[in-house]
Amino acid sequence: MELDALERRIAELRAQVRAAKAAADHATVRLLRAELRKTERAWDDALDPEPEPAQAPSLSVREQVHQALTLLGVPTAGKMIVAVNEAFFAGRVTAGQLTSLRRDEEKSFRTSPYARPYYLCAALTSELLSPARGLLAVSTWPAQIRIIGPLSPRTDFLTSAIRIAEHIARLIHAGEDASLAAYRLLTGMAQNIPGAVDGFDRAEPAQVIAAAGAELTIHRESDMHERGQAAKRAEKQLDQVTRLFGAGLKTARTA
User: Fold this and answer.
1) What percent of the chain has pLDDT over 90?
2) Which regions form coiled coils (predicted)?
């Protein structure tokens, strides 16, 4: 009902309440007063309606992948990106979407370089500076991080485990619960790190961080040296497109 119609109905009901009260018709008074209160609430709602709750904007596939990669901080395979996205962000990304996404990102960059704040790009092999099969990275990361050397798969695995454990620890500290999927992911990774989990128990973040950190210390220096040398070669040999998306074999060998 419009405001004018509600106001007329309120006036009618008030008059009817007075008449029923004068006639000592208490049952009718109760019914009329209940309807009067209901009509007055409708008038209040019509005068100042409550705004509809804002809908949380859904993230695009591109944004979901960037979110997962930002958590991990290292070049990552599609399967892990999907798992992290589901475990921590309740997202839904498929492997097929990731394949087309990288092609779209390269096409967008070639059309208008650096028009976006970031691009989802390829990790590069340290030997040939060609795209590392199946690994995605973020363009804003240092080249040394986006390049994969012989030790990098292990060091990046350890780094990912630490980052996931740290994220779960932050959730716990904030009084939130990590999902069962998050703990399953961490426990599965911990079983491949000596000392990170006791048997088949659920992995605890602090234990994973300590064990993964201890092993990472052994490999990190050599790995970063290899990656750093390759990053210097990439800076000299590659153009702005191939620095992000990789050189073809011919380009890498003749540059």
Assistant:
1) 67
2) 3-30
- Choice among 42-56, 120-134, 146-160 with the minimum mean pLDDT: 42-56
CB 232 within 8 A of CB 143: no
pTM for this entry? 0.75
What residue spans define the domains of the chain?
61-254
* Segment 6-11 long-range contacts (CB within 8 Å, at least 24 positions apart): 6/39, 6/42, 6/43, 6/46, 7/43, 9/39, 10/36, 10/39, 10/40, 10/43
What's the one-letter identity of residue 218?
Answer: I
Query: E-strand spans in 112-220?
Result: 120-125, 131-138, 147-148
The pair of structure tokens assigned to 92 is 């839904």
**C-alpha 212, offset from chain centre:** 23
DSSP for 32-67 reads HHHHHHHHHHHHHHHHSPPPPPPPPPPPPHHHHHHH
pLDDT at 56 > cutoff 60: no
3 state SS of 131: strand
The span from the CA of 100 to the CA of 216, in Å, is 33
Backbone angles phi, psi at 230, to 5 degrees: -65, -35
> Within 10 Å of residue 38's Cβ, how many Cβ atoms?
11
